[in-house]
Amino acid sequence: MLLKNLKKVTKREVEWRKRVFARDKYTCQEPKCKQKGGYLEAHHIKKKFDYPELKYVIDNGITLCRKCHEKTFFNEKKFEKKYIRINNKMKNYAIPKLSCMPSRRTK
Predict the structure, then answer these.
(1) Neighbour count for residue 12 (Cβ, 10 Å)
(2) Burial label, 17 (beta-carbon count in 10 A; 0-12, 13-18, 19+)
(3) d(CA 62, CA 72)
(4) Cβ of 44: how many Cβ atoms within 10 Å?
């Protein structure tokens, strides 16, 4: 049954995706595309399977439209350096606080 294959999406994953989209101004970051709005996906630059510690790191995410995201399937290494360069240019953008991340306690 199809429903067995559906993965439960956590609140933290939803928040990570929202922060990536907000940072990228809801625009596909592939230079030749730049689709605004519509159906967008948050892509993990470094695969979350290989780098689980980067799963919720905003700098490891980039907004892509469905068409551009499909190009990365099974070609992650080919796009990794390119998307890291694009993200490095965006470091100065304000990123909304992730509501479900524990805050640091100060004494």
Answers:
(1) 14
(2) middle
(3) 12
(4) 21
* pTM listed for this prediction: 0.75
Helix (H) or strand (E) holding 42: strand 40-44
| Phi-psi label, residue 25: left if phi above 0, alpha if psi -120 to 50, beta otherwise | left
DSSP lists the bridge partners of residue 62 as 43
Tokens of 41: 């996906």
Cα distances from 54 to residues 47, 48, 102, in angstroms, run 8, 7, 16
Model confidence at 2: pLDDT above 50: no
Question: Is residue 27 a contact partner of residue 36, using CB atoms and an 8 Å limit?
Answer: yes
Most confident of 6-20, 50-64, 78-92: 50-64
Distance CA(7)–CA(14), nearest Å, equals 13
pLDDT class for 75, splitting at 50, 70, 90?
confident
| pLDDT reading at 64 higher than 90 | yes
The SS3 call for residue 51 is coil
Judge contact between 47 and 76, C-beta under 8 A.
yes
